[in-house]
Design goal:
The longest helix is centred in the last third of the chain and has 17 residues. Helix content is 41%, strand content 20%. The chain has a 5-stranded parallel sheet. Strands 1-2 form a two-stranded antiparallel sheet. It has a two-stranded parallel ribbon with strand order 4-13.
Length: 347
């Protein structure tokens, strides 16, 4: 990592350089992030924390799962982000009759000008930069699994041919709570591939008033382009170069290990309510998200506060609760809040 100190206008700046021909400073990073957030906020009312968390996932190159009851703007948020970023956008409406080929694409028989017939690949909507998987838990597990390879390897295999996907590639999925009728819970293997799981909260009375005012009056101008794929990739490259102190990294590891009920450091809540703990992807998500949060705050080091702020979104979908938790109305967030208090920070 290269950090340069530049003094100008009497102000000292620590500047992070990414390579020699593609520089981006911390100030550049924050400027682009704020510009994206401002453009999304022109359409979305409130939900500032949600917008920042979704942006964190995009910068990290990860996928995000948005959960909330219908009508809270989940689809609008993803669409607006697609308008703000200069990326190829596609939308998949998941329904019980949706088939895997409707997502990945398939080979079709075509006839050329000379009358010869041959098979040609017709790409599906997964061959885009930003894929909105709307109401992903409305489709059957067979169809849901069509995204597994794309989300992890960023490739798509059709008829034994492996095809690379666009770069960058993000899946932003929405789902209704699993207790509603006509839904299929996502398999644990697919949940683990989401960088964050974010809960979309109901707006406050003030926000609801503003939503009604905006949506029942004259049409408003939508979001404008604020960044492109290359800029987002540069932001992600900068985030990965942010240093993290050994005690902070060790704290992340101890948090993830403490989610496993059989581990010696597991607390009372974990032993009672958790069936399976978080995977190593959970630790990776926490560290990378904490680095991005530090940059968004204008810092080049990761703090314990950065870690605490991202534990919930990174792990709430990665711990599997048992029957006792369901019977007692205990959520994954309840367990994680207690776990964070039990895993002490080190000097």
């Amino acid at each position: 990592m290269v950090i340069e100190t530049i003094v100008g206008d009497g102000v000292r700046h620590d500047v992070q350089r990414v390579g020699t021909t593609d520089p981006m400073t911390v100030a550049d990073f924050r400027e682009v992030a704020v510009r994206i957030e401002d453009e999304v906020a022109r359409v979305m009312v409130g939900q500032g924390d949600l917008i920042r968390d979704v942006l964190t996932c995009v910068i990290a190159g990860g996928h995000v799962l948005l959960e909330g009851v219908p009508g809270l703007g989940k689809t609008m948020l993803v669409r607006t982000l697609g308008d703000t970023l200069d990326l190829q956008f596609s939308r998949i409406q998941f329904t019980p009759d949706l088939m895997p080929a409707d997502i990945t694409g398939t080979n079709i028989l075509v006839e050329d000008a000379e009358g010869r017939r041959q098979f040609a690949f017709q790409p599906g909507p997964v061959f885009s930069n930003l894929v909105l998987a709307d109401e992903i838990n409305r489709a059957t597990p067979k169809t849901q699994s069509a995204l597994l390879e794309a989300m992890q390897e960023k490739t798509c295999t059709v008829a034994n041919v492996v095809r690379p996907l666009a770069d960058p590639f993000f899946v932003l999925a929405t789902q209704n709570p699993i207790e509603m009728e006509g839904t299929y819970p996502l398999p644990e293997a697919q949940l683990d591939r989401f960088f964050f799981k974010l809960i979309v909260r109901f707006p406050s009375a003030h926000e609801l008033t503003e939503i009604v005012r905006r949506t029942t009056g004259e049409p408003r101008e939508g979001a404008s382009k604020a960044a492109d794929g290359a800029t987002v990739s540069r932001m992600g490259a900068l985030a990965r170069q942010v240093p993290i102190a050994a005690p902070v990294a060790d704290h992340v590891v101890r948090i993830v290990m403490a989610t496993h009920p059989e581990h010696e450091t597991a607390g009372v809540a974990v032993r009672r309510y958790v069936r399976y703990g978080a995977s190593p992807r959970g630790a990776q998500s926490i560290v990378l998200a904490a680095k991005i949060r530090a940059l968004l705050e204008g810092r080049l080091n990761v703090s314990y506060e950065d870690v605490r702020a991202v534990v919930g979104p990174a792990l709430r979908h990665r711990i599997i609760l048992n029957f006792d938790a369901e019977a007692n109305g205990v959520s994954a967030d309840d367990v994680l809040h207690q776990l964070i208090d039990e895993v002490h920070e080190t000097a």
